[in-house]
Amino acid sequence: MAPTAKRPRRKLVARPVTFSPFARSAAHIASAYMIKRQMIENKLHEFCQLTPNGECKCNDKRNIDETESDSDGESSEGVVQADFAFFDPKPDDFHGVKTLLQTFLDNKEWNLSGFVDLILEQTTVGTVAKLEDDDDDGLFSVVTALNLGRYKDHKCMKELEDYVLSVCHESNLVDQLRVLFSKKARDVGLLVSQRVVNLPAQLLPPLYDALFDEVSWAVEDEPTEQLRNSFRFKTYLIVTKIYMHKKANGKLGEKADSEEEPVIYVKAEDELFHELKNYVSMGLVMAVEADKIPTFRKQLRSLIDDEP
Amino acid sequence: MATRLQFENNCEVGVFSKLTNAYCLVAIGGSESFYSIFETELADVIPVVKTSIGGTRIIGRLCAGNKNGLLVPHTTTDQELQHLRNSLPDSVVVQRIEERLSALGNCIACNDHVALAHTDLDRETEELIADVLGVEVFRQTIAGNILVGSYCALTNRGGLVHPHTSIEDLDELSTLLQVPLVAGTVNRGSEVIAAGMTVNDWTAFCGSDTTATELSVIESVFKLREAQPSAIVDKMRKSLIDSYV
Protein backbone atom coordinates (compact mmCIF):
# COMPACT_ATOMS: atom_id res chain seq x y z
CA MET A 1 0.00 0.00 0.00
CA ALA A 2 1.49 3.35 -1.01
CA PRO A 3 1.68 5.96 1.73
CA THR A 4 -0.75 8.60 0.62
CA ALA A 5 -1.14 11.02 3.47
CA LYS A 6 1.60 13.53 2.86
CA ARG A 7 0.04 16.78 3.78
CA PRO A 8 0.60 19.16 0.87
CA ARG A 9 -0.15 18.97 -2.80
CA ARG A 10 -2.42 16.00 -2.92
CA LYS A 11 -4.09 15.62 -6.28
CA LEU A 12 -7.82 15.88 -6.27
CA VAL A 13 -8.28 13.26 -8.92
CA ALA A 14 -10.11 10.41 -7.31
CA ARG A 15 -7.98 7.80 -8.96
CA PRO A 16 -8.47 4.88 -6.65
CA VAL A 17 -5.34 2.80 -6.87
CA THR A 18 -6.31 0.23 -4.34
CA PHE A 19 -5.89 -3.44 -3.83
CA SER A 20 -8.62 -4.66 -1.59
CA PRO A 21 -11.77 -6.15 -3.11
CA PHE A 22 -13.96 -3.70 -1.22
CA ALA A 23 -12.04 -0.73 -2.52
CA ARG A 24 -12.21 -2.13 -6.03
CA SER A 25 -15.97 -2.25 -5.82
CA ALA A 26 -15.98 1.24 -4.36
CA ALA A 27 -13.88 2.40 -7.31
CA HIS A 28 -16.33 0.73 -9.62
CA ILE A 29 -19.18 2.66 -8.07
CA ALA A 30 -17.26 5.92 -8.35
CA SER A 31 -16.39 5.39 -11.98
CA ALA A 32 -19.99 4.61 -12.76
CA TYR A 33 -20.63 8.30 -12.09
CA MET A 34 -18.14 9.50 -14.66
CA ILE A 35 -20.04 11.90 -16.84
CA LYS A 36 -17.85 13.88 -19.14
CA ARG A 37 -14.45 15.45 -19.17
CA GLN A 38 -14.11 19.18 -19.20
CA MET A 39 -11.27 21.53 -19.85
CA ILE A 40 -11.64 23.88 -16.93
CA GLU A 41 -9.15 24.67 -14.23
CA ASN A 42 -9.47 23.19 -10.78
CA LYS A 43 -12.59 24.29 -9.08
CA LEU A 44 -13.49 23.13 -5.67
CA HIS A 45 -17.06 23.42 -4.61
CA GLU A 46 -18.47 22.16 -1.38
CA PHE A 47 -21.76 22.60 0.40
CA CYS A 48 -22.51 21.32 3.77
CA GLN A 49 -26.06 21.63 5.01
CA LEU A 50 -27.83 20.21 7.97
CA THR A 51 -31.17 18.74 7.04
CA PRO A 52 -34.05 18.83 9.50
CA ASN A 53 -33.54 15.30 10.76
CA GLY A 54 -29.94 15.93 11.60
CA GLU A 55 -28.29 14.43 8.54
CA CYS A 56 -25.39 16.32 7.14
CA LYS A 57 -25.41 16.46 3.36
CA CYS A 58 -22.21 17.22 1.63
CA ASN A 59 -22.23 17.96 -2.07
CA ASP A 60 -18.92 17.33 -3.64
CA LYS A 61 -18.50 18.36 -7.23
CA ARG A 62 -15.12 18.74 -8.76
CA ASN A 63 -13.91 19.53 -12.23
CA ILE A 64 -10.50 18.26 -12.96
CA ASP A 65 -7.97 20.08 -15.08
CA GLU A 66 -7.32 18.26 -18.33
CA THR A 67 -4.18 18.95 -20.23
CA GLU A 68 -5.12 16.97 -23.29
CA SER A 69 -8.35 15.71 -24.63
CA ASP A 70 -8.80 12.45 -26.40
CA SER A 71 -11.05 12.53 -29.38
CA ASP A 72 -11.91 8.92 -28.63
CA GLY A 73 -13.60 10.00 -25.45
CA GLU A 74 -12.44 7.20 -23.15
CA SER A 75 -9.40 7.63 -20.97
CA SER A 76 -8.35 6.94 -17.44
CA GLU A 77 -8.51 10.63 -16.37
CA GLY A 78 -11.87 12.16 -16.14
CA VAL A 79 -14.49 13.91 -14.13
CA VAL A 80 -15.95 11.90 -11.34
CA GLN A 81 -19.00 13.41 -9.79
CA ALA A 82 -20.16 11.98 -6.55
CA ASP A 83 -22.70 13.11 -4.00
CA PHE A 84 -21.98 11.79 -0.57
CA ALA A 85 -24.49 11.75 2.22
CA PHE A 86 -24.12 10.96 5.89
CA PHE A 87 -26.46 8.61 7.70
CA ASP A 88 -26.95 7.17 11.13
CA PRO A 89 -25.65 3.65 11.44
CA LYS A 90 -28.22 0.98 10.59
CA PRO A 91 -28.08 -2.80 11.05
CA ASP A 92 -27.91 -3.19 7.26
CA ASP A 93 -24.52 -1.52 7.27
CA PHE A 94 -22.98 -4.50 9.00
CA HIS A 95 -20.93 -5.87 6.12
CA GLY A 96 -19.67 -2.49 4.95
CA VAL A 97 -18.51 -1.43 8.41
CA LYS A 98 -16.99 -4.82 9.06
CA THR A 99 -14.96 -4.63 5.87
CA LEU A 100 -13.68 -1.17 6.80
CA LEU A 101 -12.67 -2.33 10.27
CA GLN A 102 -11.05 -5.56 9.14
CA THR A 103 -7.53 -4.39 10.01
CA PHE A 104 -8.47 -2.35 13.07
CA LEU A 105 -6.38 -4.53 15.36
CA ASP A 106 -3.88 -5.63 12.71
CA ASN A 107 -4.03 -9.37 12.25
CA LYS A 108 -5.46 -10.35 15.58
CA GLU A 109 -8.42 -12.70 15.61
CA TRP A 110 -11.03 -11.02 17.75
CA ASN A 111 -14.75 -10.54 18.01
CA LEU A 112 -14.95 -8.00 15.22
CA SER A 113 -18.58 -8.81 14.51
CA GLY A 114 -19.54 -7.96 18.08
CA PHE A 115 -17.63 -4.71 17.84
CA VAL A 116 -19.43 -3.76 14.65
CA ASP A 117 -22.75 -4.60 16.30
CA LEU A 118 -21.93 -2.20 19.13
CA ILE A 119 -21.20 0.57 16.64
CA LEU A 120 -24.43 -0.05 14.74
CA GLU A 121 -26.56 -0.13 17.87
CA GLN A 122 -25.39 3.30 18.93
CA THR A 123 -27.44 5.34 16.51
CA THR A 124 -27.23 8.61 18.44
CA VAL A 125 -23.51 9.03 18.03
CA GLY A 126 -21.93 7.66 14.90
CA THR A 127 -22.04 8.39 11.19
CA VAL A 128 -21.60 6.41 8.01
CA ALA A 129 -20.89 8.02 4.67
CA LYS A 130 -22.51 6.58 1.57
CA LEU A 131 -23.31 7.72 -1.92
CA GLU A 132 -26.56 9.62 -2.00
CA ASP A 133 -28.86 7.55 -4.15
CA ASP A 134 -26.89 4.38 -4.23
CA ASP A 135 -28.93 1.22 -4.45
CA ASP A 136 -25.88 -0.89 -3.84
CA ASP A 137 -25.51 0.64 -0.40
CA GLY A 138 -21.76 0.90 -0.63
CA LEU A 139 -20.24 2.26 2.52
CA PHE A 140 -17.30 4.62 2.23
CA SER A 141 -16.56 5.72 5.74
CA VAL A 142 -17.54 5.21 9.34
CA VAL A 143 -16.88 7.39 12.39
CA THR A 144 -18.10 6.85 15.89
CA ALA A 145 -17.18 7.33 19.52
CA LEU A 146 -17.75 4.47 21.98
CA ASN A 147 -17.62 5.04 25.71
CA LEU A 148 -15.12 2.59 27.18
CA GLY A 149 -16.89 2.36 30.49
CA ARG A 150 -20.33 1.75 29.05
CA TYR A 151 -19.22 -1.17 26.91
CA LYS A 152 -16.61 -2.47 29.29
CA ASP A 153 -18.17 -5.87 29.71
CA HIS A 154 -18.40 -6.78 26.08
CA LYS A 155 -16.00 -9.46 24.91
CA CYS A 156 -14.79 -7.39 21.98
CA MET A 157 -13.87 -4.44 24.17
CA LYS A 158 -11.93 -6.68 26.54
CA GLU A 159 -10.05 -8.18 23.61
CA LEU A 160 -9.34 -4.70 22.29
CA GLU A 161 -8.03 -3.58 25.66
CA ASP A 162 -5.81 -6.66 25.96
CA TYR A 163 -4.41 -6.19 22.50
CA VAL A 164 -3.69 -2.48 22.88
CA LEU A 165 -1.98 -3.03 26.21
CA SER A 166 0.04 -5.94 24.88
CA VAL A 167 1.46 -4.15 21.86
CA CYS A 168 2.56 -1.09 23.78
CA HIS A 169 6.35 -0.98 23.60
CA GLU A 170 6.88 1.83 26.05
CA SER A 171 6.50 0.51 29.55
CA ASN A 172 5.98 3.86 31.22
CA LEU A 173 3.01 4.51 29.02
CA VAL A 174 1.42 1.12 29.56
CA ASP A 175 0.38 2.12 33.02
CA GLN A 176 -1.20 5.33 31.83
CA LEU A 177 -3.12 3.36 29.25
CA ARG A 178 -4.22 0.83 31.81
CA VAL A 179 -5.61 3.63 33.92
CA LEU A 180 -7.52 4.92 30.93
CA PHE A 181 -9.09 1.54 30.43
CA SER A 182 -10.02 0.92 34.02
CA LYS A 183 -10.42 3.83 36.38
CA LYS A 184 -11.03 6.55 33.87
CA ALA A 185 -12.97 4.36 31.47
CA ARG A 186 -16.21 6.23 32.03
CA ASP A 187 -14.71 9.41 30.64
CA VAL A 188 -12.88 7.91 27.72
CA GLY A 189 -14.36 7.58 24.25
CA LEU A 190 -12.87 5.24 21.69
CA LEU A 191 -12.77 7.21 18.48
CA VAL A 192 -13.24 4.88 15.53
CA SER A 193 -12.71 6.46 12.14
CA GLN A 194 -12.15 4.43 9.02
CA ARG A 195 -12.66 5.14 5.39
CA VAL A 196 -11.78 3.80 1.98
CA VAL A 197 -8.38 4.81 0.70
CA ASN A 198 -8.47 8.03 -1.29
CA LEU A 199 -11.84 9.17 -0.11
CA PRO A 200 -11.93 12.89 -1.00
CA ALA A 201 -10.42 14.93 1.77
CA GLN A 202 -13.19 17.49 1.46
CA LEU A 203 -15.43 15.10 3.32
CA LEU A 204 -13.33 15.07 6.44
CA PRO A 205 -14.30 18.36 8.11
CA PRO A 206 -18.03 17.70 7.81
CA LEU A 207 -17.55 14.11 8.88
CA TYR A 208 -15.74 15.02 12.06
CA ASP A 209 -18.08 17.95 12.63
CA ALA A 210 -20.98 15.54 12.43
CA LEU A 211 -19.40 13.29 15.00
CA PHE A 212 -18.50 15.91 17.55
CA ASP A 213 -21.80 17.69 17.09
CA GLU A 214 -23.61 14.45 17.75
CA VAL A 215 -21.57 13.95 20.90
CA SER A 216 -22.56 17.36 22.20
CA TRP A 217 -26.20 16.80 21.24
CA ALA A 218 -26.17 13.44 22.97
CA VAL A 219 -24.98 15.08 26.15
CA GLU A 220 -28.17 17.15 26.07
CA ASP A 221 -30.69 14.89 24.40
CA GLU A 222 -30.17 11.37 25.69
CA PRO A 223 -33.18 10.09 27.65
CA THR A 224 -31.41 8.99 30.82
CA GLU A 225 -28.90 10.73 33.05
CA GLN A 226 -26.55 7.80 32.76
CA LEU A 227 -26.49 7.94 29.01
CA ARG A 228 -26.02 11.66 29.01
CA ASN A 229 -22.99 11.36 31.23
CA SER A 230 -21.59 8.57 29.15
CA PHE A 231 -21.02 11.03 26.35
CA ARG A 232 -19.22 13.61 28.43
CA PHE A 233 -15.84 12.47 27.20
CA LYS A 234 -12.74 13.90 28.80
CA THR A 235 -10.42 11.92 26.57
CA TYR A 236 -10.65 10.28 23.18
CA LEU A 237 -8.68 7.15 22.50
CA ILE A 238 -7.59 6.65 18.92
CA VAL A 239 -6.10 3.48 17.46
CA THR A 240 -4.64 4.05 14.05
CA LYS A 241 -1.77 3.29 11.66
CA ILE A 242 1.27 5.29 10.73
CA TYR A 243 4.41 4.71 8.75
CA MET A 244 7.44 5.39 10.88
CA HIS A 245 10.77 5.94 9.20
CA LYS A 246 13.10 3.06 9.94
CA LYS A 247 15.79 5.37 11.21
CA ALA A 248 13.37 7.67 12.96
CA ASN A 249 14.85 9.25 16.00
CA GLY A 250 12.10 11.74 16.50
CA LYS A 251 13.67 14.76 14.89
CA LEU A 252 14.46 15.91 11.40
CA GLY A 253 18.22 16.05 11.09
CA GLU A 254 20.10 17.87 8.38
CA LYS A 255 21.56 14.79 6.83
CA ALA A 256 20.93 13.43 3.40
CA ASP A 257 17.79 11.59 4.31
CA SER A 258 16.24 14.51 6.09
CA GLU A 259 13.84 15.09 3.24
CA GLU A 260 11.91 12.07 4.39
CA GLU A 261 9.62 12.75 7.26
CA PRO A 262 10.05 10.55 10.29
CA VAL A 263 6.40 9.67 10.45
CA ILE A 264 3.92 9.38 7.62
CA TYR A 265 0.31 9.44 8.65
CA VAL A 266 -2.05 7.23 6.70
CA LYS A 267 -4.91 9.51 7.68
CA ALA A 268 -4.17 13.22 7.51
CA GLU A 269 -6.08 14.14 10.62
CA ASP A 270 -3.91 11.88 12.76
CA GLU A 271 -1.09 14.33 12.36
CA LEU A 272 -3.24 17.04 13.84
CA PHE A 273 -4.27 14.82 16.70
CA HIS A 274 -0.65 13.97 17.30
CA GLU A 275 0.35 17.57 17.66
CA LEU A 276 -2.38 18.47 20.05
CA LYS A 277 -0.29 17.07 22.88
CA ASN A 278 -1.15 14.76 25.67
CA TYR A 279 -0.84 11.68 23.53
CA VAL A 280 0.40 8.18 24.03
CA SER A 281 1.91 7.03 20.76
CA MET A 282 2.15 3.37 19.92
CA GLY A 283 1.50 2.05 16.55
CA LEU A 284 -0.42 4.60 16.94
CA VAL A 285 -2.66 4.90 19.94
CA MET A 286 -3.44 8.42 20.98
CA ALA A 287 -5.41 9.81 23.84
CA VAL A 288 -6.57 13.30 23.06
CA GLU A 289 -8.12 15.60 25.58
CA ALA A 290 -11.67 16.43 24.70
CA ASP A 291 -11.24 20.15 25.11
CA LYS A 292 -8.70 20.21 22.33
CA ILE A 293 -11.34 19.09 19.87
CA PRO A 294 -12.49 22.56 18.73
CA THR A 295 -8.88 23.40 17.87
CA PHE A 296 -8.72 20.19 15.90
CA ARG A 297 -11.86 21.04 13.96
CA LYS A 298 -10.53 24.45 13.01
CA GLN A 299 -7.16 23.10 12.01
CA LEU A 300 -8.72 20.33 9.97
CA ARG A 301 -10.82 22.79 8.08
CA SER A 302 -7.85 24.98 7.26
CA LEU A 303 -5.76 21.96 6.37
CA ILE A 304 -8.26 20.70 3.85
CA ASP A 305 -9.12 24.11 2.44
CA ASP A 306 -5.51 25.02 1.95
CA GLU A 307 -4.88 22.10 -0.30
CA PRO A 308 -4.62 23.05 -3.97
CA MET B 1 -24.16 -30.87 13.15
CA ALA B 2 -23.24 -27.44 11.90
CA THR B 3 -20.27 -25.61 13.38
CA ARG B 4 -19.37 -21.93 13.10
CA LEU B 5 -15.75 -20.90 12.65
CA GLN B 6 -13.46 -18.31 11.11
CA PHE B 7 -10.30 -18.43 9.08
CA GLU B 8 -8.05 -15.57 10.24
CA ASN B 9 -10.94 -13.25 11.06
CA ASN B 10 -12.58 -14.08 7.76
CA CYS B 11 -15.96 -15.78 7.71
CA GLU B 12 -15.64 -17.23 4.21
CA VAL B 13 -14.70 -20.74 5.29
CA GLY B 14 -15.82 -22.30 2.00
CA VAL B 15 -12.95 -20.47 0.32
CA PHE B 16 -10.26 -21.93 2.55
CA SER B 17 -11.53 -25.48 2.87
CA LYS B 18 -13.14 -28.24 0.85
CA LEU B 19 -15.20 -30.93 2.54
CA THR B 20 -16.44 -34.16 0.94
CA ASN B 21 -17.60 -37.51 2.27
CA ALA B 22 -14.16 -39.08 1.87
CA TYR B 23 -11.68 -36.33 2.75
CA CYS B 24 -11.30 -32.75 3.82
CA LEU B 25 -8.84 -30.22 2.44
CA VAL B 26 -7.83 -27.14 4.43
CA ALA B 27 -5.60 -24.24 3.52
CA ILE B 28 -2.22 -23.78 5.15
CA GLY B 29 -1.39 -20.69 7.13
CA GLY B 30 -4.46 -20.45 9.26
CA SER B 31 -4.42 -20.49 13.04
CA GLU B 32 -4.35 -23.75 14.94
CA SER B 33 -7.90 -23.28 16.14
CA PHE B 34 -9.09 -23.51 12.54
CA TYR B 35 -7.59 -26.97 12.05
CA SER B 36 -8.51 -28.17 15.48
CA ILE B 37 -12.18 -27.50 14.81
CA PHE B 38 -12.04 -29.59 11.65
CA GLU B 39 -10.03 -32.29 13.31
CA THR B 40 -12.33 -32.52 16.30
CA GLU B 41 -15.26 -33.18 14.02
CA LEU B 42 -13.59 -35.35 11.42
CA ALA B 43 -10.37 -36.89 12.65
CA ASP B 44 -11.57 -40.45 13.15
CA VAL B 45 -13.69 -40.62 10.08
CA ILE B 46 -11.92 -38.98 7.15
CA PRO B 47 -8.43 -37.54 6.61
CA VAL B 48 -7.95 -33.79 7.00
CA VAL B 49 -5.25 -32.68 4.55
CA LYS B 50 -3.46 -29.33 4.68
CA THR B 51 -2.54 -28.10 1.26
CA SER B 52 -2.20 -25.18 -1.08
CA ILE B 53 -3.13 -25.05 -4.75
CA GLY B 54 -0.94 -23.09 -7.09
CA GLY B 55 0.68 -21.54 -4.03
CA THR B 56 -2.61 -19.97 -2.97
CA ARG B 57 -4.83 -20.59 0.02
CA ILE B 58 -8.17 -20.30 -1.76
CA ILE B 59 -8.30 -24.03 -2.30
CA GLY B 60 -12.04 -24.34 -1.76
CA ARG B 61 -12.74 -22.24 -4.82
CA LEU B 62 -10.06 -23.73 -7.04
CA CYS B 63 -10.84 -27.42 -6.81
CA ALA B 64 -13.95 -29.56 -7.13
CA GLY B 65 -14.42 -33.04 -5.79
CA ASN B 66 -16.50 -35.74 -4.21
CA LYS B 67 -15.80 -39.12 -2.65
CA ASN B 68 -14.71 -40.57 -5.98
CA GLY B 69 -12.22 -37.99 -7.11
CA LEU B 70 -10.75 -34.53 -6.96
CA LEU B 71 -10.24 -32.15 -9.86
CA VAL B 72 -7.53 -29.53 -9.55
CA PRO B 73 -6.71 -26.72 -11.97
CA HIS B 74 -3.68 -26.47 -14.20
CA THR B 75 -2.09 -23.98 -11.80
CA THR B 76 -1.49 -26.76 -9.29
CA THR B 77 2.22 -27.49 -8.94
CA ASP B 78 3.65 -30.97 -9.25
CA GLN B 79 4.59 -31.05 -5.58
CA GLU B 80 1.08 -30.12 -4.54
CA LEU B 81 -0.36 -32.77 -6.82
CA GLN B 82 1.96 -35.39 -5.40
CA HIS B 83 1.16 -34.34 -1.85
CA LEU B 84 -2.55 -34.67 -2.56
CA ARG B 85 -2.14 -38.08 -4.17
CA ASN B 86 -0.14 -39.28 -1.19
CA SER B 87 -2.45 -37.92 1.47
CA LEU B 88 -5.83 -38.80 0.07
CA PRO B 89 -7.29 -42.32 0.21
CA ASP B 90 -6.48 -44.57 -2.74
CA SER B 91 -10.08 -44.65 -3.84
CA VAL B 92 -9.93 -40.95 -4.62
CA VAL B 93 -8.58 -40.14 -8.08
CA VAL B 94 -6.76 -36.80 -8.21
CA GLN B 95 -6.74 -35.31 -11.67
CA ARG B 96 -5.24 -32.04 -12.85
CA ILE B 97 -7.19 -30.61 -15.77
CA GLU B 98 -6.31 -28.09 -18.41
CA GLU B 99 -9.22 -25.73 -18.46
CA ARG B 100 -9.37 -22.05 -19.18
CA LEU B 101 -11.79 -21.51 -16.31
CA SER B 102 -9.36 -22.49 -13.61
CA ALA B 103 -11.46 -21.76 -10.53
CA LEU B 104 -13.11 -25.15 -10.64
CA GLY B 105 -14.76 -24.71 -7.28
CA ASN B 106 -16.66 -21.73 -8.64
CA CYS B 107 -17.63 -23.49 -11.86
CA ILE B 108 -18.66 -26.93 -10.60
CA ALA B 109 -21.08 -27.87 -7.87
CA CYS B 110 -21.23 -31.59 -7.23
CA ASN B 111 -22.20 -34.35 -4.86
CA ASP B 112 -21.48 -38.05 -5.27
CA HIS B 113 -24.03 -38.58 -8.03
CA VAL B 114 -24.66 -35.43 -10.00
CA ALA B 115 -22.85 -32.24 -10.88
CA LEU B 116 -23.82 -28.78 -12.09
CA ALA B 117 -21.33 -27.15 -14.41
CA HIS B 118 -20.60 -23.67 -15.70
CA THR B 119 -22.19 -23.22 -19.13
CA ASP B 120 -18.91 -22.31 -20.80
CA LEU B 121 -16.92 -25.30 -19.63
CA ASP B 122 -15.04 -27.26 -22.32
CA ARG B 123 -16.49 -30.50 -23.58
CA GLU B 124 -13.35 -32.37 -22.54
CA THR B 125 -13.65 -30.99 -19.06
CA GLU B 126 -17.23 -32.10 -18.87
CA GLU B 127 -16.23 -35.62 -19.86
CA LEU B 128 -13.43 -35.61 -17.32
CA ILE B 129 -15.85 -34.55 -14.62
CA ALA B 130 -18.16 -37.40 -15.54
CA ASP B 131 -15.24 -39.88 -15.56
CA VAL B 132 -13.21 -38.82 -12.56
CA LEU B 133 -16.05 -37.86 -10.25
CA GLY B 134 -18.43 -40.52 -11.47
CA VAL B 135 -21.34 -38.15 -11.86
CA GLU B 136 -23.86 -37.02 -14.39
CA VAL B 137 -23.10 -33.47 -15.50
CA PHE B 138 -25.71 -30.78 -16.20
CA ARG B 139 -24.90 -27.34 -17.53
CA GLN B 140 -27.10 -24.99 -15.58
CA THR B 141 -27.40 -21.52 -14.16
CA ILE B 142 -28.60 -20.57 -10.70
CA ALA B 143 -30.71 -17.42 -10.41
CA GLY B 144 -29.16 -16.29 -13.68
CA ASN B 145 -25.62 -16.74 -12.36
CA ILE B 146 -23.30 -18.95 -14.35
CA LEU B 147 -20.95 -19.56 -11.43
CA VAL B 148 -22.94 -22.49 -10.15
CA GLY B 149 -20.16 -23.64 -7.88
CA SER B 150 -20.25 -20.39 -5.92
CA TYR B 151 -23.96 -19.98 -5.47
CA CYS B 152 -24.87 -23.52 -4.52
CA ALA B 153 -23.78 -25.88 -1.75
CA LEU B 154 -24.71 -29.46 -2.57
CA THR B 155 -24.58 -32.80 -0.79
CA ASN B 156 -26.27 -36.14 -1.31
CA ARG B 157 -29.04 -35.16 1.08
CA GLY B 158 -29.90 -31.61 0.11
CA GLY B 159 -28.79 -28.33 -1.35
CA LEU B 160 -28.74 -24.63 -0.51
CA VAL B 161 -28.86 -22.14 -3.37
CA HIS B 162 -28.71 -18.41 -4.01
CA PRO B 163 -31.53 -16.57 -2.21
CA HIS B 164 -32.94 -15.03 -5.38
CA THR B 165 -33.59 -18.34 -7.09
CA SER B 166 -37.18 -18.49 -8.33
CA ILE B 167 -39.58 -21.28 -7.42
CA GLU B 168 -39.56 -22.62 -10.97
CA ASP B 169 -35.78 -22.74 -10.99
CA LEU B 170 -35.79 -24.46 -7.63
CA ASP B 171 -38.20 -27.12 -8.88
CA GLU B 172 -36.23 -27.67 -12.05
CA LEU B 173 -32.92 -27.98 -10.24
CA SER B 174 -34.41 -30.20 -7.61
CA THR B 175 -35.68 -32.58 -10.28
CA LEU B 176 -32.29 -32.64 -11.95
CA LEU B 177 -30.34 -33.14 -8.76
CA GLN B 178 -32.85 -35.44 -7.06
CA VAL B 179 -32.38 -33.72 -3.70
CA PRO B 180 -34.47 -31.16 -1.83
CA LEU B 181 -33.30 -27.61 -2.39
CA VAL B 182 -33.80 -24.44 -0.42
CA ALA B 183 -32.96 -20.85 -1.31
CA GLY B 184 -31.15 -19.18 1.56
CA THR B 185 -28.18 -17.19 2.74
CA VAL B 186 -25.15 -17.71 4.91
CA ASN B 187 -22.92 -15.39 6.94
CA ARG B 188 -25.61 -12.89 7.81
CA GLY B 189 -27.06 -12.36 4.37
CA SER B 190 -24.21 -13.27 2.05
CA GLU B 191 -25.46 -14.69 -1.24
CA VAL B 192 -22.29 -16.54 -2.09
CA ILE B 193 -23.32 -19.74 -0.39
CA ALA B 194 -20.43 -22.00 -1.27
CA ALA B 195 -17.86 -19.43 -0.21
CA GLY B 196 -19.45 -18.99 3.18
CA MET B 197 -19.79 -22.64 4.13
CA THR B 198 -18.63 -26.14 3.36
CA VAL B 199 -20.72 -29.24 3.94
CA ASN B 200 -20.89 -33.00 3.55
CA ASP B 201 -23.46 -35.63 4.41
CA TRP B 202 -23.11 -35.45 8.18
CA THR B 203 -21.50 -32.15 9.09
CA ALA B 204 -21.27 -28.54 7.98
CA PHE B 205 -18.89 -25.68 8.71
CA CYS B 206 -20.19 -22.13 8.37
CA GLY B 207 -18.70 -18.69 8.85
CA SER B 208 -19.06 -17.29 12.33
CA ASP B 209 -21.33 -14.48 11.18
CA THR B 210 -24.00 -17.03 10.26
CA THR B 211 -27.15 -16.27 12.22
CA ALA B 212 -29.07 -18.86 14.19
CA THR B 213 -31.87 -18.78 11.62
CA GLU B 214 -29.49 -19.47 8.76
CA LEU B 215 -27.88 -22.25 10.74
CA SER B 216 -31.20 -23.93 11.42
CA VAL B 217 -32.11 -23.74 7.73
CA ILE B 218 -28.78 -25.34 6.89
CA GLU B 219 -29.22 -28.10 9.44
CA SER B 220 -32.69 -28.88 8.20
CA VAL B 221 -32.07 -28.88 4.46
CA PHE B 222 -28.89 -30.93 4.73
CA LYS B 223 -30.49 -33.18 7.34
CA LEU B 224 -27.60 -32.80 9.71
CA ARG B 225 -29.41 -33.17 12.99
CA GLU B 226 -29.79 -36.90 12.95
CA ALA B 227 -26.89 -37.56 10.57
CA GLN B 228 -24.18 -40.12 11.23
CA PRO B 229 -21.01 -40.63 9.24
CA SER B 230 -22.14 -43.65 7.36
CA ALA B 231 -21.78 -44.92 3.87
CA ILE B 232 -24.96 -46.94 4.04
CA VAL B 233 -27.22 -44.28 2.65
CA ASP B 234 -24.93 -43.80 -0.29
CA LYS B 235 -24.44 -47.41 -1.15
CA MET B 236 -28.11 -48.25 -0.84
CA ARG B 237 -29.04 -45.30 -3.02
CA LYS B 238 -27.95 -47.00 -6.22
CA SER B 239 -30.26 -49.91 -5.63
CA LEU B 240 -33.12 -47.69 -4.55
CA ILE B 241 -33.13 -45.36 -7.55
CA ASP B 242 -33.05 -46.96 -10.96
CA SER B 243 -32.65 -44.00 -13.20
CA TYR B 244 -33.04 -40.28 -13.25
CA VAL B 245 -36.19 -39.00 -14.88
Automatic annotation (TrEMBL), chain A:
<comment type="similarity">
    <text>Belongs to the BCP1 family.</text>
</comment>
<dbReference type="InterPro" id="IPR025602">
    <property type="entry name" value="BCP1_family"/>
</dbReference>
<protein>
    <recommendedName>
        <fullName>Protein BCCIP homolog</fullName>
    </recommendedName>
</protein>
<dbReference type="GO" id="GO:0005634">
    <property type="term" value="C:nucleus"/>
</dbReference>
<dbReference type="Pfam" id="PF13862">
    <property type="entry name" value="BCCIP"/>
</dbReference>
UniProtKB/TrEMBL annotation, chain B:
<dbReference type="GO" id="GO:0042273">
    <property type="term" value="P:ribosomal large subunit biogenesis"/>
</dbReference>
<dbReference type="InterPro" id="IPR002769">
    <property type="entry name" value="eIF6"/>
</dbReference>
<keyword id="KW-0690">Ribosome biogenesis</keyword>
<keyword id="KW-0539">Nucleus</keyword>
<protein>
    <recommendedName>
        <fullName>Eukaryotic translation initiation factor 6</fullName>
    </recommendedName>
</protein>
<dbReference type="GO" id="GO:0043023">
    <property type="term" value="F:ribosomal large subunit binding"/>
</dbReference>
<keyword id="KW-0648">Protein biosynthesis</keyword>
<comment type="similarity">
    <text>Belongs to the eIF-6 family.</text>
</comment>
<dbReference type="GO" id="GO:0005730">
    <property type="term" value="C:nucleolus"/>
</dbReference>
<dbReference type="Pfam" id="PF01912">
    <property type="entry name" value="eIF-6"/>
</dbReference>
<dbReference type="GO" id="GO:0042256">
    <property type="term" value="P:cytosolic ribosome assembly"/>
</dbReference>
<keyword id="KW-0963">Cytoplasm</keyword>
<dbReference type="GO" id="GO:0005737">
    <property type="term" value="C:cytoplasm"/>
</dbReference>
<comment type="function">
    <text>Binds to the 60S ribosomal subunit and prevents its association with the 40S ribosomal subunit to form the 80S initiation complex in the cytoplasm. May also be involved in ribosome biogenesis.</text>
</comment>
<dbReference type="GO" id="GO:0003743">
    <property type="term" value="F:translation initiation factor activity"/>
</dbReference>
<comment type="subunit">
    <text>Monomer. Associates with the 60S ribosomal subunit.</text>
</comment>
<keyword id="KW-0396">Initiation factor</keyword>
